[in-house]
Write a structure and sequence with these properties.
heterodimer; A: 315 residues; alpha/beta; Rossmann fold; Alpha-Beta Plaits; 4-stranded antiparallel β-sheet; 33% helix; 27% strand; elongated; B: 259 residues; mainly alpha; 74% helix; AAA+_ATPase (chain A)
């Protein structure tokens, strides 16, 4: 079989996952990841990210729906899929009494297309810690070891479950560099993350999950484009919202006033900002704490979280 | 795409067994249990043996001792040390991690068990030779029965360990969950007490305990007093237990900690 025939390296259709106690962690999601793409699954804790990834990794069977990795069912056709996938679990999974080098050597003995273990450790910057027992590693170093094992078998598809949780800023950037380098080498990457900047920086496409469903999906730009831009500032004493030019003419679609602080939402940021600043210039007033920002993934994310709260209030 | 070269199962087993052997060597209490208990325990029951009328049963102290030693080796070097190993690997998420890779489920269990089984085998061989030299047991009369009993006993002990690990939550509780089989086997399977010393009815029932047939074969090999039919029944019983245990492991083994 030629794996290159499958443009959709990962295909998920109407996936549901139900736990033993009856809890429905994943409630019918569909998405696909193309060859050489970095795809990020975002969501708050309990949104169903790990539950989804575990099905893709072939660790768990879906309650219903269809999952294909490189054209195969990762659970039923383990042996057809595993030589091509690399997995980084959310938590370690190493014997604490083995050293880093012994752990890498064991894993290298278990994969068919292994890099030399030293090379994998070098990729994640752990080569100097090779003789240290796993139990003595810091949380960040364990994440790196896990990443080293995930890439040890030169995978075509890489599953990274919160790869940078517990890493310092430098470690996080190192990991991003490695993921980009692997992507440039043709590796397909599916990652979950809490860090919105990580998804914004790294992902070609992403999906935001909420309560087991996909609430938004697309490129980071598409997902953020659905959100309004924001302007906020402090009105000087003696001025009120009514003193501003008519908000509709500025292209403002919504506003909030909190004491003297005004927040405006708009889909036409330049027009709204220009109108506001020209008005302030002419009136000779200083808008303190002026903050003008395009929509960000963070706002999209928070917007989706807020929708949930609204639903809960309505219910 | 580079040609797919499947890592042969043998290479994977070796990698797993090597790591597990390293871990065994670094766990002092496991080493003591696995190596010293089977050597020390048989000799602690010797005074009791001296008071039994073994000659009337056609047994020598040496043969009873070597059988006991092999039995203790099954129980401590293999069974109880493996219950702890399986539980420890599961609780450290090592088993889950391994299952994300190319290693198949049976390979994970076998690879983890190999070092303990090898320790058990070596120990039994050393004990056999030592008893032959020191206690005049002589070479086994029917060595193939002893070897068959050894192999069946080792495999069954490992399979029972995996099964016990399925319902053991922590390494500490493994000390408790392993006890029933340890006691039952020591008392009923002809390890601490020779089967002949049990009342006949009890002995008849105890002959069907999991480790009884393996012990019977080991001893029958030494004495040469096991008929072909008896040997066949013992081997079939041991095999039946093994099949049952393997089936139960496939059905109930837990690969991840309970949350």
């Amino acid at each position: 079989m030629d794996n290159n025939e499958h443009e959709h390296v990962i295909e998920v259709t109407d996936l549901r996952r139900v736990y033993g106690g009856g809890f429905e962690a994943v409630r019918g999601i569909s998405f696909h990841v193309d060859r050489g793409e970095v795809f990020a699954l975002l969501g708050t804790n309990g949104a169903g990210k790990t539950s989804t990834v575990e099905v893709l990794e072939g660790l768990a069977r879906p309650a219903s729906g269809r999952v294909r990795v490189l054209g195969h069912d990762p659970y039923e056709e383990r042996s057809a899929v595993r030589p091509w996938t690399g997995v980084m679990l959310q938590e370690g999974g190493f014997p604490s009494e083995l050293t880093v080098a012994e752990t890498a050597r064991m894993w290298a003995g278990c994969v068919s297309r292994a890099r030399p273990p030293e090379e994998a450790l070098e990729l994640v910057g752990l080569e100097r810690r090779a003789d240290v027992r796993v139990k003595q590693l810091s949380g960040g170093e364990r994440r790196r070891l896990d990443l080293a094992l995930a890439v040890l078998g030169r995978p075509e598809v890489l599953f990274l479950d919160e790869p940078t949780t517990g890493l310092d800023a430098e470690g996080r950037h190192d990991t991003w560099e490695l993921v980009r380098a692997l992507r440039d080498g043709g590796t397909t990457v599916l990652l979950t993350t809490h860090y919105l900047e990580e998804a914004e920086d790294l992902a070609d496409r992403l999906a935001i999950m909420r309560e087991g469903r996909i609430a938004a999906t697309g490129t980071p730009a598409e997902v953020t484009a659905a959100q309004p831009s924001r302007i906020s500032f402090r009105l000087p004493d003696g001025y009120f919202l009514g003193d501003l030019p008519p908000l509709g003419e500025l292209g403002v679609t919504g506003h909030e006033v909190d004491g003297r602080v005004v927040r405006l939402r708009t889909r036409e940021l330049q027009r709204a900002a220009t109108g506001l600043l020209v008005w302030a210039e002419r009136a000779g007033i200083e808008l303190r704490n002026l903050d003008v920002r395009s929509a960000s993934l963070e706002e999209a994310f928070l917007g989706i979280a807020r929708e949930k709260e609204k639903e809960e209030v309505a219910a | 795409m580079s040609a797919l070269v499947l890592a042969p199962a043998g290479r994977r087993l070796r990698a797993l067994a090597r790591a597990e052997l390293t871990l065994l060597g670094r766990n002092r209490s496991a080493v003591v249990t696995a190596l010293l208990v089977p050597l020390a325990l048989p000799f602690s029951v010797r005074p009791a043996l001296d008071q039994m009328d073994l000659k009337a049963e056609g047994l020598s102290v040496g043969i009873v001792l070597v059988t006991a030693a092999v039995g203790f080796s099954f129980l401590f070097a293999v069974y109880s040390s493996l219950v702890s190993a399986y539980v420890a690997r599961r609780e450290e998420l090592v088993l889950k991690r391994l299952r994300t890779g190319e290693v198949g489920d049976p390979e994970i269990l076998v690879g983890t068990a190999l070092p303990a089984m090898c320790v058990g085998l070596l120990q039994s061989l050393v004990l056999t030779v030592a008893c032959a030299l020191l206690l005049d047991t002589g070479a086994p009369q029917a060595p193939y029965l002893t070897v068959l009993g050894l192999l069946l006993g080792l495999v069954l002990s490992a399979a029972l360990a995996a099964l016990t690990a399925s319902y053991t939550r922590t390494v500490e509780s493994a000390q408790v969950t392993a006890l029933p089989l340890l006691f039952l086997s020591m008392l009923g399977s002809g390890i601490a007490i020779p089967a002949e010393a049990l009342p006949d009815r009890v002995a008849d029932v105890c002959a069907y305990l999991p480790l009884s047939p393996a012990i019977r074969l080991v001893r029958g090999g030494f004495t040469g007093e096991l008929s072909g039919y008896e040997a066949l029944v013992a081997a079939a019983t041991a095999l039946a237990w093994t099949v049952l245990a393997v089936f139960a492991v496939r059905r109930w083994f837990r690969w991840e900690p309970r949350r």
